[in-house]
Design brief:
Elements (H helix, E strand, L loop, with lengths): L1 E7 L3 H12 L4 E5 L6 H6 L1 H19 L15 H25 L3 E4 L1 E6 L2 E5 L5 E11 L3 E3 L12 E2 L1 H4 L8 E5 L3 H12 L3 E5 L11 H15 L2 E3 L3 E7 L4 E6 L5 E6 L1 E4 L3 E3 L6 H4 L22 E3 L10 H15 L13 E3 L4 E6 L2 H7 L3 E7 L4 H6 L5 E7 L5 E8 L2 H13 L4 H5 L10 H10 L8
Parallel strand pairs: 1-2, 1-6, 2-3, 6-17, 8-15, 9-10, 9-15, 10-11
Antiparallel strand pairs: 4-5, 5-6, 7-16, 12-13, 13-14, 18-19, 19-22, 20-21, 21-22
């Protein structure tokens, strides 16, 4: 078979790239190593983790908030088997949806390991050992990433686990030790803390979610400690972990160089992710690698080999599903001669804890580092009528704007339904809106979104109405 474009990997970057290529009239194939489409995001990442986050939040609210609302319950229990079963059903529904989209767009799907034989020839090795070869004019590499590991802390997938295994636990841990205070560790830690687990976070740096605005980090730390009983150990260097059968022991050095020991029944290693490029045969096509195991690309996502592109987690930038999607669309449109663009500064980051956390644009720390004159306006959810009605009063919205022009430079928020609210900030910043532009737009009352308007008012001559 001969194709105009072949996509290796069917995660959000890959399947979106394939669909856009097909929409543009290109004969397209997609290759997936596993027997289901969707990649990490749909199978062992974004979607299943959100399913468990929602389920665990329902349980936590039933145990701690329903009585306030006048709802009386008794004999409340966690059925982990049902919770995991529901998560699996959500995943399968999404898998089936992607398979449908491939058929709808007449994209040929190959299951097996895709690897380069040469620049324009790819072989697909199935799990049964059967090998097929296809020819392609262009190739898009979208093979994603996998959990990073520590050489002195081997993952046994039993007691010392990654996010993949954490999504399949059939019991609530008594004490979950999380190594790493990033997004994945905090989200999965939240799942089990809501269900009754003690959660201890051991972090090498001095803060959680270190890439986000420090104000968000501080507030999230405060809320997780207050509402879920999280324990945090910052500036601690993990030195090892031992599976004792029914328990696990973690050792770490504190800032004074002293050795501390943590005892739990599971250890979640969540220190980030690394690009997945094994078995691609990149050397056969002459593709050069970049830093930290990533594939080197130019601004058009093209490698050093003309016609071979790479997107998503295997290239530089944030490892985010929606970033990969944007790059997939960009490459498809570049191939047919269009002139797309991506503003990487306006790709939002989200943490799906509760309260949710999100940010887009420059952080306050970045503006200070740049020496850029800015002004700031904040509005707390405890002053929001809608948040009071729902009982979600933790958090705030912070807007950073240029001191002279009033253009919005960054929006950082923590609170209820933030993952959806951040889209308003992205739209405003894509159109170079000023804080006053947003402040003068009507926001429905009562809504959580009013907090964005109030924060913009606060950044505009301190004009917030409700504080």
């Amino acid at each position: 078979m001969k194709y105009d474009v072949t996509v290796i990997g069917s995660g959000p970057g890959g399947y979106v790239a394939a669909i856009r290529c097909a929409q543009l009239g290109l004969k397209t194939a997609i290759i997936e190593k596993y027997n289901v489409l969707g990649g990490t995001c749909l199978n062992v990442g974004c979607i299943p983790s959100k399913a468990l986050l929602d389920s665990s939040e329902h349980f936590h609210n039933a145990a701690h908030a329903f009585q306030t609302h006048g709802i009386e319950l008794s004999n409340l229990q966690v059925n982990m088997q049902q919770m995991i079963k529901r998560k699996g059903e959500v995943v399968k529904s999404n898998n089936d949806g992607i398979a449908y989209l491939m058929k709808k767009n007449k994209i040929d799907t190959y299951y097996g390991l895709g690897s380069f034989v040469s620049k324009n020839k790819i072989k697909v090795t199935g799990t049964d050992g059967n090998v097929q070869e296809i020819e392609t004019d262009k190739t898009i590499i979208a093979t994603g990433s996998k959990p990073a590991s520590l050489p002195f802390l081997p993952v046994d997938k039993k007691r010392i686990i990654t996010s993949t295994e954490a999504l399949e636990l059939t019991e609530v841990p008594k004490h979950l030790i999380v190594i790493g205070g990033g997004v994945i560790g905090l989200e999965l830690g939240s799942v089990y803390a809501r269900l009754g687990a003690k959660v201890t976070v051991v972090e090498y740096l001095d803060t959680i979610i270190p890439t986000m605005d420090r104000a968000l980090s501080k507030e999230l730390q405060r809320v997780l400690k207050k509402t879920l009983g999280f324990e945090f150990f910052f500036n601690h260097k993990v030195t090892g972990a031992t599976n004792n059968g029914e328990t696990v022991t973690v050792t770490a050095e504190n800032p004074k160089g002293e050795t501390l020991t943590f005892e739990g029944d599971y250890v979640l290693v969540s220190i980030g992710r690394k690009p997945y490029t094994e078995g691609l045969g990149l050397e056969n096509a002459g593709v050069q690698m970049g830093e930290r195991g990533m594939i080197a690309v130019n601004d058009h996502m093209e490698t050093n080999v003309p016609g071979i592109y790479a997107i998503g987690d295997v290239v530089r930038g944030a490892m985010l599903a929606h970033k990969a999607e944007e790059e997939g669309v960009l490459v498809a449109e570049e191939i047919v001669g269009q002139k797309p663009h991506i503003n990487y500064n306006l790709i939002p980051g989200v943490v799906y804890t509760w309260p949710e956390v999100a940010g887009v644009g420059f952080t306050e720390e970045q503006l200070k580092e740049q020496g850029r004159a800015y002004k700031s306006g904040s509005f707390p959810f405890k002053a929001s009528g809608r948040a009071k009605a729902s009982g979600d009063t933790d958090g705030f919205v912070k807007v950073l704007a240029d001191k002279e022009t009033d253009e919005i430079l960054g929006v950082h928020m923590i609170g209820p339904r933030i993952a959806d609210l951040v889209a308003e900030a992205v739209v405003a910043m894509e159109f170079r809106a000023s804080a006053e532009d947003v402040a003068r737009m009507s926001h429905a009352h009562p809504t959580y979104a009013e907090a964005i308007k109030e924060a913009c008012l606060a950044a505009t001559e301190n004009r917030a109405i409700h504080i």
